[in-house]
């Protein structure tokens, strides 16, 4: 299966959903964009490395890189290889002593490591075909005199990816809290916990 190289276009913060970020990846030789919803911690880890900032203490991804370098392990490539029910799956292609090993990882963690190891990020056509959006084409096609601007598809994705916790039942909140903790989205988990406490 032919791989398509991706570049990091940027991080987009939702103006309407607190704690929601979209990591926007762009097709290197095309116009499609692949927005991936990630948590605040992962967004910070990626942004810090992109901006070449040095935290006072090593972040988890920095620790991983130091550990890998100490034991001569190199990450050669990050591949986003599947998309199931809106969840992206990624793997790290690692090398040590000429031997390659594939390690399954969350996409957000994989990208945070890719920027630290300066390794390529790639995906497959079926993923871009199903989840990619054409930002430039949509904006270019908005030539009418209509005063309403075209809704930002990245913002629309961010809004659709998170529920309004105030409209949830107690049972839904409890379940959503468990999901947020399982995904290590602790900022979202704290918001849900606050909402639960208000109702008690």
Describe this structure in words.
The chain has helices at 40-50, 60-70, 107-117, 125-131, 135-140, 153-161, 170-182, 186-199, and strands spanning 3-13, 21-27, 33-38, 74-84, 87-96, 99-105, 121-124. By secondary structure, the protein is α+β, with helices and mostly antiparallel strands. The chain folds into 2 domains: 3-135, Bifunctional nuclease domain; 163-200. A 7-stranded mixed beta sheet has the order 3-2-1-7-4-5-6. Helix 1 (40-50) packs parallel to helix 3 (107-117), helix 2 (60-70) crosses helix 3 and helix 7 packs antiparallel against helix 8 (186-199). The longest helix is centred in the last third of the chain and has 14 residues, at 186-199. It is globular. Mean pLDDT is 82; it is low at 137-150.
* Overall spatial form: globular
Fraction of residues in H or I helices:
40-55%
Strand order, largest beta sheet: 3-2-1-7-4-5-6
Helical stretch count?
Answer: 8
Order of helices and strands: EEEHHEEEHEHHHHH
Low-confidence runs of at least 5 consecutive residues:
137-150
Summarize the structure.
Helix content is 41%, strand content 28%.
List the helices and strands and how they pair.
Elements: E1 3-13, E2 21-27, E3 33-38, H1 40-50, H2 60-70, E4 74-84, E5 87-96, E6 99-105, H3 107-117, E7 121-124, H4 125-131, H5 135-140, H6 153-161, H7 170-182, H8 186-199
Parallel strand pairs: 4-7
Antiparallel strand pairs: 1-2, 1-7, 2-3, 4-5, 5-6
Which features does this protein show?
single chain, about 200 residues, alpha+beta, Bifunctional nuclease domain, seven-stranded mixed β-sheet, about 40% helix
């Amino acid at each position: 299966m032919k791989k398509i190289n991706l570049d990091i276009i940027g991080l987009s913060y939702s103006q309407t959903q607190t704690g929601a970020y979209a990591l926007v990846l762009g097709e290197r030789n095309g116009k499609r964009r692949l927005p991936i919803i990630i948590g605040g911690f992962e967004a910070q880890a990626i942004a810090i490395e992109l901006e070449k900032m040095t935290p006072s203490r090593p972040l988890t991804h920095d620790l991983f890189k130091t550990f890998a370098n100490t034991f001569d392990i190199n990450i050669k490539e990050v591949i986003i290889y599947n998309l199931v029910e809106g969840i992206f799956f990624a793997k790290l292609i690692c090398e040590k002593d000429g031997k390659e090993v594939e390690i399954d990882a969350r996409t957000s963690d994989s990208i945070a490591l890719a920027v630290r190891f300066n390794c390529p990020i790639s995906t497959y056509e079926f993923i871009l075909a199903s989840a990619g959006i054409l930002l430039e084409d949509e904006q270019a096609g908005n030539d009418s005199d209509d005063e309403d601007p075209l809704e930002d598809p990245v913002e629309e994705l961010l809004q659709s990816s998170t529920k309004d916790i105030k409209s949830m039942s107690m049972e839904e909140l409890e379940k959503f809290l468990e999901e947020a903790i399982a995904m290590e989205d602790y900022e979202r988990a704290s918001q849900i916990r606050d909402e639960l406490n208000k109702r008690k």
